[in-house]
Amino acid sequence: MKCIALYHVRFEDLGTFAAPLADAGYQVSYRHAGAAPLTQAEWRGAELIVVLGGPLGVNDAALYPWLAGEISGLKQRLALGLPTLGICLGAQLMAAALDGRVERRMGSGGAPEAEIGWSALDLAEDAGPLRHLRGVPVLHWHGDNIVPPSGSPPAAATLHTPCQAFTAGSHALGLQFHAEFHPDALEEWLAGHSVELQHAGVDFQRLREETRRHGAGLARAGDALLRDWLAGL
Question: Domain range spanning residue 33?
Fold first, then answer.
């Protein structure tokens, strides 16, 4: 089976999700969403497409016109009920393709505020595969919030982020947080997102310490989540 992993920056890859995909029989190929956009045949033909994260926003299509093509491809794929997984930016693009919205995340003072760091999720009672994350701190790294499409209530939330996950039927899952994050990749993320992190006033040492404390637990829980979700396709 063919899985296309659509990436936006190279270091935000499948991480710990690579092993369960291989074990489930998927052959993964990576494609850059802008430099090597998918054809309509690929959007319709791949057994699974995973749309990964990145520093761009759904509303940045004026700067990155190929984002509109990405949303269009997702719209076609999701309308056909084909298996699709979106992570962070990928989940936001999925929401837009399903006629949801993406808005700036606002903090307690009413000003835009990024959510970057580790915290546990508030999960819905019937969380499905997300139940593996109950009580497990996960990595958050976003400045926008998903307003999910009609008929897709949030499956998880955190303070000031009402939608951390949503589903569309049993074939599509959007994750605002980074369940795929491998702790060994942290320094690549810190370097790749250095401007964003400094602008947000993130404490690098605290982020390193929290990653050492929580990274292995997330790796185990994320692996279990994906295996469970793949089994239900």
Answer: 2-231
